[in-house]
Write the structure tokens for this entry.
Amino acid sequence: MPCWSSEADEAEAESVEAVPTLVFAFSEGVGAWAERGLPNATIRVVPPTITTDALVDTLRGAVWAERVVCCLQNDADGPAHSRAAIQLFRIARALLLCGKGQEAIEFVTVTEAGVAVQTGEIAAPDPAGALGFIGCLAKELPNWRIKAADIARVDHIGLAQILGLPRDPEGNVVALREGRRLRQRFTDCALAPVHESAFRKGGVYVVIGGAGRLGEVLSAHLVRHYDAKVIWVGRSPLSDAVQTKIDRLARFGPAPEYLRADARDPAGVGGVQI
């Protein structure tokens, strides 16, 4: 099971080199915070909806940058095109368009409340989505020295401290909380023995999206081992491909029944007669 543990004794912080640094901030408040932490850096406060082309124009005037810091905006209530993952994608794409893909630049991402590591914390989905993209970026661009930090609030820590984090080739995030550096680990979990299955012999099971790959595998298990009646609910009309799946499973037990309905529509699902 996943857990967060301190790595303070496992990895020494890197010294923060005085390299030319460009910081992208998506609000004046975050820009001021970045400037206090790195007074010699170039700060660019840009709107959350800035386009890739506009970012390219900004970067062409800063091709000297050896370190790029992205202070992502947590704006889950804003328009979809301003979300943190989109902001990060556009910055990365703009860097590639400016020829930075093969350079050994330091690429630092700062998110706010993107992971829940302590009791009472709730991960914000907007920055959490960006963290997944960072992992992909680290694997696609191995030349970049990627660091990803998640903080509770920008006023709880200085930017210089974040830059001192060791790089992670996999792009895994480090959570900084109350002076501790936390990284996600996976530990063994002892599960209680299962004495009997939750599935019932001859039971009836409704599978949303049952005609999909996972639904088909689950249905085959239910039909083969429990002689169950399986009902598939899907949005698309019954097609020849779906009928072929039904006929294939019918060789092992009761044939699944297909009903057309949109599971996102309560009224539509409520009209399904089983």
Notes: The mean pLDDT is 88.
